[in-house]
Fold:
Amino acid sequence: FLASPACLQTDNMHTHVLRPACAFALLAASVEPLQLLPPRQPPRTCRAAVSSVVCTAAERSLARDLSEEQRAAAGVPKVAPSAAEHAQVLLADLIAVEELSGAAPDTELFERAIRAHAEAGLVEECLSLLRRMRRARKTPSLESYALVVSALSAAGRPREAARWLRRVVEPSVSQLLLRRSKAPPRRSEYNRAMAAYGAAGLPHEVMETLRTMVGEGEHRPDLRSFNALIAAHANAGQPDRAAAWIHRMRGWGIEPDACSYTSAIAGFARAGEPERAAAVMAEMRLAPNITADIRAHSALVEAFAVAGRVAEAAGALQAARDAGLAPTVVTYASVAKGHAMRGEYEAASGVLDQMEADGVAPNVPTFHALLSVCARAGEADEALALLRRMEAAGGGGGGGGGGGSTLAYNLVIGCLLRRDRAAEAEALLHSMHAAGVAPDTVTFSSMISLSPGASTAPARAAEWLGAMKQLGLQPDAQCFNKVLACCARARLPELADEWLDKMEAAGVPPNLVSYSTTIAAYAKTAQPDEAAAVLRRMTARGIAPDTILLNQLLESLVRASRPAQAAALLSRFRRGELGPPPDCCSYTIVLSALAREGDVARAASWFRTMTAEDGIAPDLMCYNGLIRGFAGQGELDEAMRLYDRLRREGLSPDEWTYGPLLDGARAARASRLARSLGAQMLGRSPPVLSSFCLVALRRSIGASGLRAVCRECGVLDQPAVRQALGKAPLQGARRG
Structure:
């Protein structure tokens, strides 16, 4: 397989994606010369412009390789995540913001998450994020819509891409036509403009057009006019206003129809309010001469599924079937995905069985949505079963023939690799080739991150990179960065430096992640001069360092036993000579190094500078570094003051807090203090049961004292406690 250069061809639909900025520049340029638009269709020149604005996978990676990957690593160099993993990191950040702050994430975080999912080819997740953004009362920008269009186009769903394109393009074009019209616009023309604004979720623009139609055009609004306004509020995440307009339109003598109610139900579904959606459905059923169609039932099913109430979603699906309606693939898919998100994979499979029994074939987006849920949950076996079912169904094809798609295989391969099932992942890649499905850069990027051993990882990664070239795929920055990360993990910084040169020779410009990974490799091996040389090389190419990269330089100096130079670099850092300001990690690196060298006075001075002058709140690691220094120098009172301070600030001490304090108490023969610390350490929930701390406590208060404290705290039966109470100390406990 690896030696067959002509056995696979790249599928352009999967390796090309629209460049949003360029696309909208051309769209804006194409608006002026238009004379006429057919109803509900984007201008042909716009479609041609968008279809021509594509970029290769190498260009696509420039948006993907952002410093978010470094932030996710928290300053610890590791393999750069794949596009799908990067998307999952951003999604986790978004969820964390919602859970921790209780408020909706800002628009920028939503747009970064949408971009990452679009780059990873996760179309359904991309659409879900856009709906989630609306539910959070955040108005999507034109770029957000462009990313959705790009993802749909790359996934081989051109009709849906065109529909979303109309949501973005047609409102402005329709309004332009109204302004240019020499004759008074007809009501149908106003309605067409309002329908475009409604699909784009722009209620203010719909209302302004409605006022213009009534005031200047002297036309009374009709059912289409109000339906556009209801749809605009529903799509903008304002379902309450959408439902209110169902009643207000009656004041104009116009009765709502099924479309009016369905738009409101869909709005409440996107807002995660299934009870309100069900209330609108009940009102619809009581309305005369209106019958709920499958779209209304599907919206209600989606409402319960999004809210995690899968049993009620299944009940709504059954109600549609009992009403003699034929559920669509979207209706079934909502219930199946809801079961999968709850870990009920057998139930999800049962929904697929029911689909097929009812003559509805699961489509590619259905399988992609379920596979994405399984991959995020790490359920590799379930993901494999779904992929086999997709292959048997014969839907999708990423490179012709077979039933699987490139995205489907990528999701399963990534899941297998994260579960340390590398052999199965490689076998699945061969199966992918045998099924005629073309791998892409994401496929190989996942395989490159595979590291069977520190010594063989760089060579194996280079082999996968070579296999890509043999198959006609151009490695992008993401792939090269993973090779660099393999070199860094293997502590081969010189080899990483060589790969930087190879990256440039291949026409792929190294980015911030590339240089940062190489500098981290030199930092691990205590080579600060070489790390600084890479930094100079990076800045000469116009790439500005970030805080994480400069922290790696500080780490390289500390590892080379140059704490004074690290402190001098931090001073330049603070003066802004190197670009970004220092963070808590920067100070922690320097003051911990000074404390280990015994220079606790300078370490404390840097701590005061960080907190008092720069206003940076210390974290637990910062406190631990300073506590270790003071305890080691016999200044136990100062160490205890820091201990009390960190607890007042709401930080939870860990083994690296208690260990040095207990050692200091033993050296000072402060057995009462040691016993008090031991009771706090073992009496908390969960208790700190580090072997290092337990042995230090036993040395301070004796075996009988340790036994008594453990009995009081209810941890006497813990294995670590029994081992600490044994005849001999734990091997290596002192070193820990």
Observations:
- Confidence is low (pLDDT under 50) at residues 1-81, 395-402, 451-455, 727-736.
- The longest helix spans residues 158-180.
- The two ends are 48 Å apart (CA to CA).
